[in-house]
Design a protein that fits this description.
alpha/beta; Rossmann fold; 20% strand
């Protein structure tokens, strides 16, 4: 297995569980969580995050940040980034780009994606990123859905290009691409 692994798949496919299993022998792991930190306004999200945190081994630390590139550059520990879909969501929120039909080509988005890819490419220890596969669905009805699909599709391609391995998880089964 290479040291940079991208794990992709559909929602509830088992991709996070598989990604975490790749790091189970590591005594120290940095868990980079780019999703929104629970603030109490969404009890279901708070419960989901708490359950994920509860299941992590004692040697794992969590960094909640949308600046994944900087987090990757700062740590020399093995890492898991879960997930690039929540990172793309945070980026689109921060840039107010949900209605931009040309979001993939916007310089500020390209700059952030380039930064993520550069930081990912520089990793020399076991690093696992989780992402949602958006290429199997229908064309979303709303512009924001299409923007998300297009941006995450490009992110997934760019990260896959510089990963040593790419795993597709479907129904809990893993296929290396």
């Amino acid at each position: 297995m290479g040291h940079r692994v991208l794990v992709t798949g559909g929602v509830r496919s088992g991709k996070s569980r598989y990604a975490e299993s790749l790091l189970q022998r590591e005594p120290v792991v940095t868990y980079i969580a780019p999703g929104a930190a629970p603030d109490g306004s969404d009890p279901e999200w708070s419960a989901r995050v708490a359950e994920h945190q509860r299941q992590r081994p004692d040697g794992w630390s969590t960094e909640e940040t949308s600046d994944v590139a900087s987090a990757l550059e700062r740590t020399t520990n093995p890492v898991i980034v879960d997930c690039l879909g929540t990172w793309a969501t945070a980026m689109l929120d921060e840039l107010g780009a949900w209605d931009a039909p040309d979001a993939v080509w916007r310089p500020e988005i390209r700059k952030r994606v380039d930064g993520l890819v550069e930081a990912w490419s520089a990793r020399s220890v076991l690093s696992v990123a989780v992402t949602n596969e958006v290429g199997f669905g229908v064309v979303p009805e709303h512009r924001s859905g299409r923007v998300f699909r297009d941006v995450l599709g490009v992110v997934n391609q760019r990260v896959a290009e510089c990963s040593d391995e790419v795993a597709l998880v479907v129904a809990g089964r893993v296929l290396y691409l």
